[in-house]
């Protein structure tokens, strides 16, 4: 690390936190703070570079994008991203991604009649 003295201990997290991870954290924080207009661009940019091979992590990170998209009034985008979460999380043994997206699915039900919303709600019910 720049500016670090030789043999000085480094924090454990420094081995895995790169700029993409920092951006994911930033987007998640903006989502939790209910600032979707700040969260969406950050999450979209970093997730465009995130490989689907990391299905569990990507599906979790997409869940925050879906939540912020819906909060920003983008029900179609939220539905599309929720569909991506469903697709990716079906390939992993973790229940956490599906659990994270349940609230978004419930909130999407008030937008029944929008084709993208109907599609993802039907898929989630199967």
Mean pLDDT: 91
CATH fold-level name: Serine Threonine Protein Phosphatase 5, Tetratricopeptide repeat
What level of helicity do the residues show? 55-70%
Supply Rg: 17 Å
**Element order, helices and strands?**
HHHHHH
Span of the ends, CA to CA? 49 Å
CATH superfamily: Tetratricopeptide repeat domain
Secondary structure category: mainly alpha
Q: What count of domains describes the coordinates?
A: 1
Regarding quaternary structure, what we see is single chain
**What is the helix tally?**
6
Which CATH C-level class is it? Mainly Alpha
Please tell me what the overall shape is. Answer: elongated
Largest sheet: none
Which band does the percent of strand residues land in? under 5%
Q: Specify the CATH architecture.
A: Alpha Horseshoe
Q: Low-confidence segments, ≥5 residues, pLDDT <50?
A: none
**Number of E-type strands:** 0
How would you describe what is shown here?
This protein has helices spanning 19-32, 36-48, 55-71, 75-89, 96-108, 115-125. By secondary structure, it is mainly alpha-helical. The protein contains 6 helices and no strands. It has a single domain (18-125), classed as Serine Threonine Protein Phosphatase 5, Tetratricopeptide repeat (Alpha Horseshoe), CATH 1.25.40.
Short description:
This protein has helices spanning 19-32, 36-48, 55-71, 75-89, 96-108, 115-125. It has one domain (18-125): Serine Threonine Protein Phosphatase 5, Tetratricopeptide repeat (Alpha Horseshoe), CATH 1.25.40. The chain is mainly alpha-helical.
């Amino acid at each position: 690390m720049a500016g670090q003295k030789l043999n000085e201990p480094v924090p454990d997290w420094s081995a895995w936190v790169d700029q993409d991870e920092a951006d994911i954290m930033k987007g998640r924080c903006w989502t939790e703070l209910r600032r979707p207009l700040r969260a969406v661009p950050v999450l979209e940019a970093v997730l465009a570079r995130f490989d689907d091979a990391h299905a569990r992590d990507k599906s979790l990170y997409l869940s925050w994008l879906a939540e912020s998209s819906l909060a920003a009034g983008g029900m179609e985008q939220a539905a599309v991203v929720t569909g991506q979460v469903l697709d990716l999380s079906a390939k992993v043994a973790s229940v956490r991604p599906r659990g994270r997206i349940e609230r978004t699915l419930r909130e999407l039900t008030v937008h029944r009649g929008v084709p993208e919303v109907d599609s993802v709600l039907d898929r989630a019910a199967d």
